[in-house]
Amino acid sequence: MESFRFCFLMLTIAILASPALSDLVLSKVDRRIYLTSHIVRISSTMKVENAGSEKESKVLLAFPEQQAKNMAYLIATPHEGKGKGKNPVVALPVEAANPKDMPAALTLYSVSLPKGLAEGDSFTFDVLAVFTHALRPIPEQITQADIQLVLYQDSAHYLSPYAVKVQSLSVKLPDSRIESYTKLENTKIHGSEIKYGPYENIPSFSYSPIAVHFESNLPFAVAHELVREIEISHWGNVQVTEHYKLIHGGAQSKGEFSRLDFQARPNVRGASAFRYLVANLPPRAHSVYYRDEIGNISTSHLRGDSKKTELLIEPRYPMFGGWRTAFTIGYGLPLQDFLFESDGKRFLNITFSSPMVELVIDALIVKVVLPEGSSDISVAAPFPVEQWQETKISHLDIDGRPVVVLKKTNVVPEHNQFFQVYYHFSQLSMLREPLMLISGFFFFFVACIVYMHADISISKSSASYLAKQQWEEVQAVIQQVQNIISRCLTTHDNLEASLRDLSRTGNIQACKAARKAADGLLKELSKELKPLLTFLQSSPSAAQVEELVAKERELQEKVMVKHSTVVDGYEKKLGARDIENRVALQQQKLTALRQEVDDLLEFIDEI
């Protein structure tokens, strides 16, 4: 309240020194302030008269600077009397004005009249001003069980650069529960409506501050950002996808939240929260979905008729002050209801803003995705917007689809008007994607036919085939060498077994017979190895194979020496301990050589 009084004092000082701008007089002003939602709407009916001799064609509208910052929408229209038919009304041109000798604390707009007012002429028109974030929660923080109280501040006198002969003000509230309000002369209250006036002969720039502190538990739904993507498909559909980042813009919630209390008494233990939102979708909307980053949200209801489709969505949790949520809704629309042709060009005619009821949007981005091949693009919007173009790459696209991006801040339901996107598109471009699919399948099947009938085997006369065949022969020979070496090692094991039998039975003749058989077998295996080694001399594995054969021969010699030493010891009647001592060093060398041979065999096998 103190800041409000200070602003009022500064505004009063500024405007008292400002002279009247012209001889125009407002003979009657009826203002109606609607505080029935968190969006403040001020509707004014004004009758202006020219009391001077010069012709006047413009009327100035004045707003305090702080109020003008929150203004989202302003429109002036000729007044239609009661009982007259509702014909389409053409809005009067409104533009920002900056006349001389005006205080900086005021923001002025100029309304152009249909025709100039001569001396004594009058004209009646309506002005609608819509404001966002104009209701201040008092207190700013409440608990789950508290109701939400908000404060609204304005002037009982219409702030105007012109004198006002007769004026009145009506403030309409959500209900009759009012904490306090400013009481002035000629103030009356009727249920949920407060009336100020009538007041007569009010000078220009008159300002009489009022404040209304009242209960309002209506949804304070604010979208910090909304991205709408409208994708056109000439195959019969317009797909709309809307991404919301939502916050409850009312009094901040403090303390703990009890789901049990809320479920038991939602009107008492959650009066300030809102549980659902309503979206009025276009008629014949189909394929509607409602989801967030977790997945599909089933708490939604859809009903429709020939005039509209109503979607009631419920967030995953009740929305208290300061709480946030993010979700996406999407739906399809029949193409013939929104795409038309004019002067050889196609144009999309669709609403600009969100279909949500009473939603304030801090930043709205509308993306219109046109078919690939669209050109000569232009936009016609009923209000100023930022505009640029992007490119979107989708399935079966070559150059990408042109995207018209429109951005506007401080958006209210009054902005949900139709806008148009014009573009040129050739009928032949529609055949691009079907032809791509047909061509793709055609070439795929041709490739399959060629593959099935073509002989792609390697020629027997080619260098690669000969090299492969030679390598296979080398591998076969190496396998034979490995088998021969394995047989040699088996023969060595048999000699070792004969020595063990000798130590057990003492039969020297049987041991010598085993030695003789082993000698014959090893000679045969040596003969088999010679041609194989000759064949492998030019192969990359020749060095490893030759090393393997050399190690096996060295092992063979050591085995024979050990065998001869043991048999000689038994013939000389030496003791078992003496024989073991004589062959101990030989046995160590045998074990090491056998390990080397086994390692070489394993290495060659890996090759």
From TrEMBL:
InterPro entries, A to Z: Ribophorin_I
What's an example GO BP annotation here?
Answer: protein N-linked glycosylation via asparagine
Listed under GO cellular component are: oligosaccharyltransferase complex
> Where would you find this protein in the cell?
Endoplasmic reticulum membrane
Keywords for the protein's UniProt record, in alphabetical order: Endoplasmic reticulum, Membrane, Signal, Transmembrane, Transmembrane helix
Q: Which residues cross the membrane?
A: 435-454
- Give the metabolic or biological pathway: Protein modification; protein glycosylation
How does the entry describe its membrane topology?
Single-pass type I membrane protein
Where this protein primarily resides, as one coarse class?
Answer: endoplasmic reticulum
- Write down the Pfam families for this protein, in alphabetical order: Ribophorin_I
Q: What does this protein do?
A: Subunit of the oligosaccharyl transferase (OST) complex that catalyzes the initial transfer of a defined glycan (Glc(3)Man(9)GlcNAc(2) in eukaryotes) from the lipid carrier dolichol-pyrophosphate to an asparagine residue within an Asn-X-Ser/Thr consensus motif in nascent polypeptide chains, the first step in protein N-glycosylation. N-glycosylation occurs cotranslationally and the complex associates with the Sec61 complex at the channel-forming translocon complex that mediates protein translocation across the endoplasmic reticulum (ER). All subunits are required for a maximal enzyme activity.
Q: Per the similarity annotation, which family is this?
A: Belongs to the OST1 family.
Q: How does it assemble?
A: Component of the oligosaccharyltransferase (OST) complex.
User: Under which name does UniProt file this protein?
Assistant: Dolichyl-diphosphooligosaccharide--protein glycosyltransferase subunit 1
Q: What is the lineage of its organism?
A: Eukaryota, Viridiplantae, Streptophyta, Embryophyta, Tracheophyta
